[in-house]
Write a structure and sequence with these properties.
The structure holds 2 protein chains of 2 kinds. By secondary structure, chain A is of the alpha/beta class. Chain A contains 13 helices and 22 strands. In chain A, 23% of the residues lie in helices and 18% in strands. In chain B, α5 crosses α7 and α6 (156-167) packs across α7. The chains are: A alpha/beta, B mainly alpha. The interface between A and B is large, with 77 and 67 residues. The structure holds flavin-adenine dinucleotide.
Chain lengths: 590, 248
């Protein structure tokens, strides 16, 4: 017999970025809110100096990531392959514990563009019929720039975003991104300091006619008090950021920007070591009764709730919908069904430039440190996509998310072991920089998620299965971007360089880390035939379930995802508070 | 209990079995005035990094430890540029890691496939401790078969020749009934862990005296560069510090 908790107005599944935002916004409106987090509690005290200054523990052993043992999924390239589990993390690494991946992210905080939000419309207007791949499944986000802008603005204030605006109310400002959508306000704080690689890249890119600007950052460049009253300290460029918790209270995370304020609301509570295994529906399958989780003693607990907010990161949100029978599972053969549809990822690539006589001091850096440009993006005026037959683009950047020595890149020809390797480390640590790409990724009929028929988690439930491979469009894009990166490299005149890009015959490689920007699978849209949730992230089928996170993206844009995830969370919370709780039911009529 | 909230000295994987460091632990216990059982590896390492030659491995057998030490010596040899893997206690790092909770995060539910595409990442049915135990046994037996001597007793050129054959997958692990682990897989694991131990914070047992960090010019756990970040293209003047507060 399951333990039954007291009923709440809203149960929040997962206490990472989206869960923290939903919790505080609903708690502020007076709802009785309870968050259930599968991992343990962790506060900034646990990350006091010098603990996080440990590359082996955090970067190599992934101390604060979810453990694959508890959170694996399976992956295959096509429907004809047998999927295998992610026994260790490779190309992505989900978070666990309070704060989620929001604790160990890199904190590049950047918006998508107005074109990104209406990519299907852009493609239809820009490309000849059938010019793009036939199996591509582009869709517009069902929200407008004007609807999202106030929420980007607010979330960026929550985070203490640091950087240079390029477009304030239509006025193009020097030093910022001229291709960004109009902002209502400049960024809250000035940009982070440039490191040597940044200034070199900026100069070369400018000379070549591009429009570089400092990576917009959620590592605060100066002291900041956010709208929830939380105080963030100026970043001290400690060099332990991407994959590490912040030791300086400077990187925006649920801990530094929301949780203390949230915990002051008596109508908010949270449980840790509480892994939700399903959403329980009423017999008519039209509404949820609450959720079932396992507590730290392995006991089954039922949490009754009037509203269920899935905030458990893209993978788990989609998996919980599939496990709970919310929405019709996607079938890649017929193209019917929506849950699992349009899973997308992203690709990266880079050139590493070596300079005997330059000291980059890569250990002195913030996570978001870098300069980037967005000239290569789906936007009015970018013509090479049509010319070369691809849609998409990339942030082209020189970033320095961390500069610790394990994994140091060495010049071509350096032995992998022996005296030569040691000499290579001595000669070249701190003497290289990167020029990198972080690309868009379109959605395709054959890239999707469902439940694995073979592999199970510790509760006996099927793992999520991802079917994903690179398609011709993305591979063409990589070849195009490679030329640009090599051109910038030439301009930068290194002593030597190495390169790493996808080739036209490359397949998705699970081993090297790319980014944890997994999106789609329960996408937002206007049409219940091609989307699992509406513009307010509300399930079309079960109206008191909302799926909040990157799962909502119909395809992946080149900006990092979290600004959009934060803004979507706020947009949805506003609608729930303003309308749904007064009049529960479908917020959009299909 | 979260790993994060464990105190430094109580960290899992850091507590050594009573047999682990033997005399050294007793000496450290006396020095820091704690009962012997409560002495953690980190305490010992803080007192004085152990001498490799008197270290009693807790996970590896004497024979395994000897072979492994000879391997890592070739991976990162001593020499003028800076300390090698033996001088920096990399074998102790490996003993503590492989005998600790390293790898216990791996998803190890079957079924397992033989010969998976390398693109699919780690697909072995093994913890790191299995990889070392099985791999070292076959590695040692094959070296002996080919050269008529223990690997550790070979000349450097022979050691390198044999390691290169392993690296290229030319040593037949399957002939020993090993269905999953290949010689190149074993080689890759030991090499990767060796580099990690060489470059990790000394609290994990390797990088003794922060010798590797000093060699490459990495300041370790200093982790505060607000002023320095603006100094472009100037060599950083200060030596490394460790998480435990040592300086070099
Ligand atoms: C190394 C790294 C670097 C990154 N850098 C950037 C960057 O620079 N810029 C950017 O925009 N994004 C970045 N990201 C991505 C960013 O972290 C995510 O977009 C963001 O955290 C997503 O928020 P979320 O709320 O969806 O998920 P999370 O913040 O991960 O929160 C999800 C929470 O749900 C919990 N959970 C999962 N399943 C269950 C369950 N069944 N029951 C209960 N709880 C559950 C998890 O434990 C977790 O705490 C990075 C990610 C990583 C890993």
């Amino acid at each position: 017999m399951a333990i039954i908790n007291d009923e709440v107005d809203a149960v929040v599944v997962g206490l990472g970025w989206s869960g923290s935002i939903m919790s505080i916004e609903l708690a502020r409106a007076g709802l009785k809110v309870r968050a259930l987090e599968r991992g343990s509690d962790q506060t900034s005290k646990d990350f006091a100096y010098p603990m996080p200054a440990d590359q082996y523990g955090y970067d190599v052993r992934n101390k604060i990531f979810a453990k694959p043992k508890d959170a694996a999924m399976t992956v295959r390239h096509t429907v004809d392959d047998t999927a295998l589990p992610t026994r260790k993390w490779g190309s992505f690494g989900p978070g666990s514990n309070v704060g989620g991946a929001g604790l160990h992210w890199t904190a590049v905080l950047i918006r998508p563009t107005p074109t990104d939000l209406k990519l299907k419309t852009y493609a239809d207007e820009t490309y000849a019929p059938r010019q793009l791949q036939e199996d591509m499944q582009l869709q517009d986000f069902p929200v407008t720039w004007e609807e999202m802008e106030p929420h980007f603005d607010y979330f960026e204030k929550v985070c203490g975003q640091s950087g240079k605006a390029g477009n304030v109310k239509g006025e193009i400002l020097p030093g910022g991104d001229p291709f960004e959508g109009p902002r209502s306000n400049p960024m809250p704080l000035p940009a982070l300091e440039d490191t040597l690689n940044c200034s070199m890249f900026k100069e070369a890119a400018t000379k070549l006619g591009y429009h570089p600007f400092p990576n917009p950052s959620a590592n605060a460049s100066q002291a900041w008090t956010n709208p929830y009253g939380q105080q963030i300290a100026p970043c001290n460029y400690c060099g332990f950021c991407s994959k590490y918790p912040c030791l300086n209270y400077s990187k925006a995370s649920p801990q530094t920007t929301i949780l203390d304020a949230l915990k002051r609301h008596p109508n908010f509570s949270y449980r840790t070591n509480a892994e939700v295994v399903r959403v329980d529906l009423h017999d008519d399958k039209k509404t949820a009764r609450g959720v079932t989780y396992y507590n730290e003693n392995g006991e089954e607990v039922f949490q009754p709730a009037k509203i269920v907010l899935l905030c458990s990161f893209q993978f788990q949100n989609v998996r919980l919908m599939l496990l709970s029978g919310i929405g019709t599972p996607y079938d890649p053969m017929t193209g019917e069904g929506v849950v699992g549809r349009n899973y997308a990822f992203l690709s990266n690539g880079n050139a590493t430039l070596f300079y005997k006589d330059k000291n980059f001091n890569p250990f002195a850096t913030a996570g978001a440190t870098g300069q980037m440009f967005n000239d290569i993006s789906p936007r009015p005026g970018f013509e090479d996509g049509v010319k070369y037959g691809f849609i998409g683009g990339a942030k082209i950047h020189s970033s320095q998310a961390t500069g610790n020595p394990i994994g140091t890149s060495l010049p071509k020809g350096t032995p992998n072991w022996g005296a030569g390797w040691k000499k290579g480390m001595k000669d070249w640590y701190g003497h290289s920089m990167k020029v990198s790409i972080t690309t868009t990724c379109m959605s395709y009929r054959g890239n999707y998620m469902d439940l694995d028929p073979t592999y199970r988690d510790k509760y006996g439930n099927p793992l999520a299965r991802i079917t994903f491979d690179w398609k011709e469009n993305e591979l063409k894009l990589q070849q195009y971007l490679r030329d640009i990166v090599l051109n910038i490299t030439k301009e930068l005149q290194p002593d030597s360089f190495t390169e790493s890009f996808l080739k036209m015959d490359s397949h998705y490689d699970l081993r090297p880390y790319v980014s944890t920007h997994n999106v789609g699978g329960a996408v937002m849209g206007d049409d219940p035939k091609t989307s699992a949730i509406n513009k307010y992230l509300q399930s079309w089928d079960v109206h008191n379930v909302f799926a909040v996170g990157g799962n909502a993206f119909p395809q992946n844009f080149q900006a990092n995802p979290t600004d959009m995830i934060g803004a979507l969370s706020l947009f949805s919370a506003e609608k729930i508070v303003g309308e749904y709780i007064k009049n529960p039911g479908a917020l959009v009529q299909a | 209990m979260t790993e994060q909230s464990d105190s430094l000295v109580k960290r899992r994987g850091f507590l050594l079995g009573t047999a682990a460091i033997g005399a050294l632990a007793v000496a450290a216990a006396i020095k820091i005035g704690k009962p012997f059982e409560a002495v953690a590896a980190s305490d010992i390492l803080r007192q004085a990094a152990p001498e490799l030659h008197s270290y009693q491995p807790s996970f590896f057998t004497e024979d395994e430890f000897r072979t492994l030490s000879a391997m890592v010596d070739r991976f990162i040899p001593a020499g003028d540029e800076g300390p090698g893997a033996l001088e920096t206690n990399v074998p102790i790092f490996l003993d503590l890691q492989v005998g600790g909770d390293y790898g216990h995060e791996i998803y190890l539910e079957g079924p397992f496939v033989k010969d998976p595409s390398p693109l699919m990442g780690y697909q072995l049915p093994y913890l790191p401790s299995d990889i070392y135990r099985k791999g070292l046994a076959i590695f040692s037996a094959e070296a002996k078969k080919i050269y008529g001597k223990d690997f550790a007793d070979l000349a450097d050129a022979q050691k390198d020749e044999f390691l290169t054959a392993c690296e290229k997958g030319k040593i037949d692990f399957a002939a020993h009934g090993e269905e999953y682990l290949t010689s190149s897989g074993f080689f890759g694991h030991v090499l990767g862990d060796t580099k990690n131990g060489y470059l990790a914070d000394p609290m994990y047992g390797g990088n003794k005296g922060m010798g590797a960090w000093a060699m490459i010019g990495y300041p370790g756990a200093r982790a505060s560069f607000r002023e320095w970040v603006k100094q472009h293209n100037v060599p950083y003047p200060l030596g490394p510090v460790s998480v435990m507060g040592e300086r070099a």
